[in-house]
Amino acid sequence: MKFACLSFRQPYAGLVLNNVKTIESRWRPVLANHQDGTLAVHIAFRDWEDDSWRDILLNRLGWTSAQIDDILQLENKAVLRDLEGKYLTVISNPRWLQRAIPARGHKDIWEVDIPEDLIPTR
């Protein structure tokens, strides 16, 4: 099956796929034509300079699930700084593939062919 795909570096890819990062901001309307649709997330080969992102993913900053839910609710109420001119897209229902597919990333939206047996049923 063919999907539109967007490359993310770590920790952002993991934060998106683990439902921690639920809003994507871009300087251009890259995702405008993909709202309410399925978008594949490509984890770029190049990581952060260190492995600190792993701690964020594994321990979620030491927060409880209730604390994370509370902070996510602030998205609807908060006045966010430095967002003037940025395009925001809500990300929902993230799912990991059954196994990784090696692919070269791209700067903007690109197309990836994912075998159906790798797509989670959830």
UniProtKB/TrEMBL annotation:
InterPro entries to which the protein is assigned, alphabetical: EOLA1/EOLA2 (IPR033615), PUA-like_sf (IPR015947)
PANTHER family hit by this protein: PROTEIN CXORF40A-RELATED, PROTEIN EOLA1-RELATED
Organism ancestry: Eukaryota, Metazoa, Chordata, Craniata, Vertebrata
Protein's recorded name: ASCH domain-containing protein
SUPFAM superfamilies according to UniProt: PUA domain-like (SSF88697)
